[in-house]
């Protein structure tokens, strides 16, 4: 199944992305959740591969990683599960996790596996720009895997330009300098920061993440960016016993105008 | 700089770097750009040296342990970091970093701690400077190290229990990093060992390098030669070893021996012998050697000594190990406890269990009779009395 290029398409806007951790709440829930999310109207997905020491994450995603690891999730197993991805899911899918897991799997092996199962890119928060550029960029390009960079309110304009040059599908704009799972308050300061980014007219579209949890925060964020990502709020929903039945109404509650 | 020190990109051979999320980048970049300049300022050096002398009590003695020497058939010198204020080498680094934080205009200090020694050393300098101090400590360590928790609180620090993961040092470090992400402007993170993103490993090694700087002078006065045959130090993250080795790195005739904690035995499944059990990986912001699963999940280490109970080593140590400049060995709980008791009986010095690991390696060495050996006695054993009592049944 061919994935749609929603990031280069100028008409697409208000894109909703959902993050969840592979192997949570159940070891084999990964593909079923992805399928359900697409049916419910999510525009693209970020599937997390769990790590023992997720320093950029708040308590909700930390917990999901711990449970996923206890359930037996590994990067190798995830790629096995994802072999079924493109027969069941057509929206873009990105993998998100920490660098050490990728390093042990082998960076080239990782890109190769992503390409083989139809994953579009990777978000690895602790892989710095310098190391990516010097050591790994060629490998990512060879397998057509996009590396997604993060920008925070503290990132300098020069660095943002550099990130824009190195990016291929979208740039992940953090709503604030924080770990995941805090609530977004689009006050004067955040609005100015989003506007400043918008005015830079970057080549790559911006997608806002961290602190987006409901319709209100989603709409505020997508006033300034092409899309927004919901993570902790969705992972919290997965702790519900009947989570499969609740996914559709969760997505609809955010996307309905 | 030397091939064993950090290069301009923050690497020691293939190890080091700054593997941090973007949220930490501005803070770490600020440190990278300013640390050397600030440390070279005259006013900084003046205040640093003055505090080391009058507050910490430096220089720490280099003591020829005669009865221990007679037992092993070599001249064994102990570098007495245990006599420093707060009882260990940790204070050398916290003094340096608090002066750095002040000059960076930071108002709030955070730190991680395992056994509590670095937490106490950080709370101490925060009291000295009147700065807010938050120390992250694993929930399990808080229970195990009550006296150190009390010391920190007496000095005005807030001790926050790290409740994630295994609730020990590794998780306390994660929590401190999360705090720093959420407080990007006014906070300085005082890392206690030669770990973390560049420039921390270099920064901490420089502050600890006073240990080998003094040792060289003292040894020259005592023996007429500033270079010993062997230098030994224990390694958890590796800060006392980094300081003890620093000024000997270029003197290739000096054999550097780093002693890791084997816990119940290297192959027992309960060990912290990183070089024996680990491989290349990234943890807490730097590329080094760490204990991990095939899937890259960090393995929880074990040692009777809380200060050595860390699943990685600093990137400089990884490089000294890989390049062959240093010899990395390990000592079990039992061997360390016996060595601690031996020093107490022969010399009247109760060592920290961490330092006992370095002492224990003497049993495994053979001497011709007149070699000079320097061992870093990184801390005193007061904090470990409970452990010694339980182990030996006193």
TrEMBL record, chain A:
Pathway: Amino-acid biosynthesis; L-tryptophan biosynthesis; L-tryptophan from chorismate: step 5/5. Pfam families: Trp_syntA. The active site is at 46 (proton acceptor), 57 (proton acceptor). Its EC number is 4.2.1.20. Coiled coil: none annotated. Keywords: Amino-acid biosynthesis, Aromatic amino acid biosynthesis, Lyase, Tryptophan biosynthesis. InterPro entries: Aldolase_TIM, RibuloseP-bd_barrel, Trp_synthase_alpha_AS, Trp_synthase_suA. It comes from the Bacteria. The keyword Heme does not apply. It catalyses: (1S,2R)-1-C-(indol-3-yl)glycerol 3-phosphate + L-serine = D-glyceraldehyde 3-phosphate + L-tryptophan + H2O. GO terms for molecular function: tryptophan synthase activity. The keyword Lyase applies. Belongs to the TrpA family. HAMAP family: Trp_synth_alpha. PANTHER family: TRYPTOPHAN SYNTHASE ALPHA CHAIN, CHLOROPLASTIC (PTHR43406:SF1), TRYPTOPHAN SYNTHASE, ALPHA CHAIN (PTHR43406). Tetramer of two alpha and two beta chains. The alpha subunit is responsible for the aldol cleavage of indoleglycerol phosphate to indole and glyceraldehyde 3-phosphate. This is Tryptophan synthase alpha chain. It comes from Sphingobacterium chuzhouense.
From TrEMBL, chain B:
Its EC number is 4.2.1.20. Signal peptide: none annotated. GO terms for molecular function: tryptophan synthase activity. It is an enzyme of class 4 (lyase). Belongs to the TrpB family. The modification N6-(pyridoxal phosphate)lysine is found at residue 90. The lineage of its organism: Bacteria, Pseudomonadati, Bacteroidota, Sphingobacteriia, Sphingobacteriales. It comes from Sphingobacterium chuzhouense. Keywords: Amino-acid biosynthesis, Aromatic amino acid biosynthesis, Lyase, Pyridoxal phosphate, Tryptophan biosynthesis. The keyword Transmembrane does not apply. PROSITE patterns: TRP_SYNTHASE_BETA. Pathway: Amino-acid biosynthesis; L-tryptophan biosynthesis; L-tryptophan from chorismate: step 5/5. This is Tryptophan synthase beta chain. Residues 57-379 form the Tryptophan synthase beta chain-like PALP domain. Pfam families: PALP. It catalyses: (1S,2R)-1-C-(indol-3-yl)glycerol 3-phosphate + L-serine = D-glyceraldehyde 3-phosphate + L-tryptophan + H2O. Tetramer of two alpha and two beta chains. PANTHER family: TRYPTOPHAN SYNTHASE, TRYPTOPHAN SYNTHASE-RELATED.
């Amino acid at each position: 199944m061919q994935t749609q290029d929603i990031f280069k398409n100028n008409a697409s806007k208000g894109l909703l992305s959902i993050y969840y951790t592979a192997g949570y709440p159940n070891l084999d829930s990964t593909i079923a959740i992805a399928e359900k999310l697409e049916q419910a109207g999510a525009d693209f997905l970020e599937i997390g591969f769990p790590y023992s020491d997720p320093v950029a994450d708040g308590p909700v995603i930390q917990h999901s990683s711990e449970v996923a690891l206890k359930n037996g999730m590994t990067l190798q197993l995830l790629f096995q599960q994802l072999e079924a991805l493109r027969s069941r899911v057509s929206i873009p899918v990105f993998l998100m996790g920490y660098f050490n897991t990728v390093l042990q799997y082998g960076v080239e092996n990782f890109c190769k596996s992503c390409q083989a199962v139809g994953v579009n890119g990777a978000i690895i928060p602790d892989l710095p720009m310098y190391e990516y550029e010097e050591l790994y960029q060629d490998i990512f390009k060879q397998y057509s895997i996009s590396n997604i960079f993060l920008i925070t309110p503290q990132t300098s304009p020069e660095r943002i330009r550099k990130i824009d040059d190195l990016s291929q599908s979208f740039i992940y704009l953090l709503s604030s300098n924080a770990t995941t799972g805090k609530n977004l308050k689009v006050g004067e300061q955040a609005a100015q920061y989003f506007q400043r980014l918008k005015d830079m007219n970057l080549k790559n579209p911006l997608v806002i993440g961290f602190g987006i949890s409901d319709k209100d925060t989603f709409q505020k964020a997508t006033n300034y960016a092409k899309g927004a990502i919901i993570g902790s709020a969705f992972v919290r929903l997965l702790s519900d016993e009947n989570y499969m039945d609740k996914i559709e109404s969760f997505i609809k509650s955010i996307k309905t105008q | 700089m030397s091939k064993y020190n950090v290069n301009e990109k923050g690497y020691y051979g293939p190890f080091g770097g700054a593997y941090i999320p973007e949220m930490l980048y501005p803070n770490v970049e600020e440190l990278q750009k300013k640390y050397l300049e600030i440390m070279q300022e005259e006013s900084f050096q003046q205040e640093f040296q003055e505090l080391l002398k009058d507050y910490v009590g430096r220089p720490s003695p280099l003591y020829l342990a005669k009865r221990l020497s007679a037992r092993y058939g070599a001249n064994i010198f102990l570098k007495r970091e245990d006599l420093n204020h707060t009882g260990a080498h940790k204070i050398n680094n916290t003094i340096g970093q608090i002066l750095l934080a002040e000059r960076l205009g930071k108002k709030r200090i955070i730190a991680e701690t395992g056994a509590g020694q670095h937490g106490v050393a950080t709370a101490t300098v925060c009291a000295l400077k009147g700065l807010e101090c938050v120390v992250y400590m694993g929930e399990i360590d808080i229970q195990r190290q009550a006296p150190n928790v009390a010391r920190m609180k007496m000095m005005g620090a807030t001790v926050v229990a790290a409740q994630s993961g295994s609730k020990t040092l590794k998780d306390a470090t994660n929590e401190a990093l999360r705090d720093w992400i959420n407080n990007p402007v006014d906070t300085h993170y005082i890392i206690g060992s030669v770990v973390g993103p560049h420039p921390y490993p270099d920064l901490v090694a420089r502050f600890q390098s006073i240990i080998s700087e003094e040792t060289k002078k003292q040894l020259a006065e005592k023996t007429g030669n500033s270079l010993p045959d062997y230098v030994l130090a224990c390694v958890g993250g590796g800060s006392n070893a980094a300081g003890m080795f620093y000024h000997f790195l270029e003197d290739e005739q000096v054999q550097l021996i780093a002693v890791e904690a084997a816990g119940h035995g290297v192959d027992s499944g309960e060990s912290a012998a990183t070089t024996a059990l680990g491989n290349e990986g990234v943890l807490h912001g730097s590329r080094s050697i760490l204990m991990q699963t095939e899937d890259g999940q960090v393995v929880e280490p074990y040692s009777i000594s809380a200060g050595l109970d860390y699943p990685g080593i600093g990137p400089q140590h990884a490089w000294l190990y890989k390049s062959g400049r240093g010899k990395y060995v390990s000592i079990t709980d039992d061997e360390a406890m016996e060595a601690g008791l031996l020093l107490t009986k022969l010399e009247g010095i109760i060592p920290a269990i961490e330092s006992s690991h370095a002492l224990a390696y003497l049993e495994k060495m053979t001497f011709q009779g007149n070699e000079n050996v320097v061992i870093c006695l990184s801390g005193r054993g007061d904090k470990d009395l409970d452990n010694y009592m339980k182990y030996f049944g006193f």
